[in-house]
Amino acid sequence: MREIDPKTTSRAKAFDLWMKATMPMVTMTKTFDITHLMRLSKRKGVKLNMLMCYAVVKAASAFKEFYMLPVGDKLMEFDHLAINTIVMTQEGGINTCDIPFSEDIHLFEADYLHITQQASQSKEDITLGDDYMVIGSSALTKCELDSVVNVYAGFWNNPFVVWSKYHKGWFKTTLSLSFQFHHTQMDGPISTGFLNKLQEVIDTMEY
């Protein structure tokens, strides 16, 4: 992680506009067709949550804005991406853990399985450190939700995605997803471009 001058980036205007905003976070919601992922999960015997996590961070990797993040009053740049996921602990609580992004889905899956297992047995969250721009995620699979608006803490500006229980129809399976981001990090064209890219990744993923 290193500080960069906002004036040398595409985020210069957004930095001036939104860094001191009282509520700089934007939330978008979209329903995704995950029919292909469901079939892939069942056919290959892999976890749907792992496939969703991979799809999210894979789509994000196509946009340079995801490698920048407002931290405090500065704009920071990162070399790597990761996604954070929530796991239940053996004691009945929750831990969060960071999964590093790898283009190779099999390497990503190996890290996902190892780190989530480690987190379920730990008393602490598992983080990767300052080299990674981390996308938060939460899977609320006990209920079909139309939308989730996350809390704004003011000290954690990372983008965050939440999805709920999928809906299985006659011909396709859909999933509602909410995407929250700091307006300094990206604008509408980038955020909607990411959501479109996410559907593309979901539709074409191979394992």
Structure description:
The chain is of the alpha+beta class. 31% of the residues lie in helices and 30% in strands. It has helices spanning 12-18, 35-44, 48-60, 105-121, 188-204, and strands at 2-4, 25-33, 68-71, 74-77, 80-88, 94-100, 132-140, 160-164, 167-168, 173-182. The strands form two sheets. Strands 2, 5, 6, 7, 8, 9 and 10 form a seven-stranded mixed sheet that branches. Helix 3 (48-60) packs across helix 5 (188-204). The chain starts with a strand and ends with a helix.
Kindly summarize this structure in a few lines.
By secondary structure, the chain is α+β, with helices and mostly antiparallel strands.
Strand content: 25-35%
**Helix percentage:** 25-40%
Total number of helices: 5
Query: In this structure, how is the largest beta sheet organized?
Result: 7 strands, mixed
How do the helices and strands follow one another from N- to C-terminus?
EHEHHEEEEHEEEEH
Could you report the average pLDDT, rounded to the nearest whole number? Answer: 95
Which labels suit this protein?
207 residues, alpha+beta, 7-stranded mixed β-sheet, 5 helices
Note the topology.
Layout: E1 2-4, H1 12-18, E2 25-33, H2 35-44, H3 48-60, E3 68-71, E4 74-77, E5 80-88, E6 94-100, H4 105-121, E7 132-140, E8 160-164, E9 167-168, E10 173-182, H5 188-204
Parallel strand pairs: 5-7, 7-8
Antiparallel strand pairs: 1-4, 2-10, 3-4, 5-6, 8-10, 9-10
